[in-house]
């Protein structure tokens, strides 16, 4: 599933986060960022290759609460999380193949992948405010 407008799709996102058993892959970007504009299409196409996961496009200016008071200075910044576990949070080069490999590696090693302490709280919790 791909959600690209949190403002108008907030309820859909809440439902998806509540019922999701897969990974949530969030991309933090900004509408004014040319790199983000180009990356958006590839991110959406990648979501079609991983229908078991939830892909969320987050404009940091429209939804700053989903950053949990963390400053993002470079784009795209990616979050990979599952419920209350963060597996990755950081800036990536805007090459979608890098994200694809990261998702595949996380999937393959889900039971042994160490969670990280940094990054936003569970997105469902942040949506609740």
TrEMBL record:
It comes from the Bacteria. Transmembrane segments: none annotated. Pfam families: Thioredoxin (PF00085). Residues 7-85 form the Thioredoxin domain. CDD domains: TRX_family. SUPFAM superfamilies: Thioredoxin-like (SSF52833). This is Thioredoxin family protein.
